[in-house]
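ok trying again, last paste got cut off:
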Amino acid sequence: MSQDSEYSEGDLRNTGMSLKHDREWDYELDRIVEAVEERDATKVGLQFPEGLKRRGPKVADDIRERVPDDVTVMLSGQPCYGACDLDTFLMKRTDVFVHFGHSPMKNTDKVIYVPLFSNVDVFPIMEESLAELDDPAENPDVGLVTTAQHMNRFEEMKAWLDERGYEVHTRKGDDRLTHEGQVLGCNYASADIDADQVLYVGGGKFHPLGLAMEHPDKNVVIADPVNNVVTVADTEKFLKQRYASVHKAMDAEKWGVIFCTKIGQGRWETAQEILEDNDDAYLITMDEVTPDRLRNFDMDAFVNTGCPRITTDDGPQFHKPMLTPGEYEIAVGNKPLDELSFDTFHGTW
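nice, full thing came through this time. structure:
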């Protein structure tokens, strides 16, 4: 999270989308109720990401009105930051488990993924974004990416740009991504296309900032239909923050190596490689990595092998430098400073 706000970039609680229930999201209640009937379920678990937990009781009420009285609907109180962050405790104890707000990273019958498609009109802000894109007569090539919430309009977005003279480049990315053109907070493989400009349509700045970091040769234009603003991704402030953290960690002697036990966030091999190479590194296993939970460990610095956003969002709040695996390699002298890059997840979990 940023130091200026208690919310992460793209958090819906600061936007008008937090004020509406029925109009903005499709909760796919029919699919959930059908699953309850097919499985003769008596226990239903619902998991929402942080910015949407306040919607949980209303959705639970909607489901309870449509299922038998003996069906118990439970809400997960565990933190949730992505499709990789499933409440496995609740999932194992329910007949139907519904994960809202994200697309599936792995095919499974155990989880119903409801991406919560938005019905916000994306085209007015796309029209404004043309001022930041090259004239198609001079440079028609443009990449197009978006988040799970707007994938329901993706083909229309492509057609809209095509009608205005652009040659739209898209790809699916890797196995961690469900849809063509989709990006995650930890994966921007869908932007690996043959175009030097990319249009990101979606809320918040974190996704396009990561995209710009991973693809520094591309001009990343942000068309945000949630906050109704067009900007260009600028990595300078973020890079300064990361360089400062690396410099602070260069004198570290004792390292805490964080291994996240969440189902889709563990990078065991990466953690083991660090431990094998450094006798002063200590493995710390955690499900939720927070500044308070690490404060009692007597370490000079930490390296996080879990979700990259722990480092980038909350990094300044940790009492000692918190680095990504790549930044760690720079801090201990294994790589030069100019190889600093954005930490991402690739492949399946």
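cool. The first strand starts at residue 43 and ends at 47. The chain has eleven helices and 13 strands.
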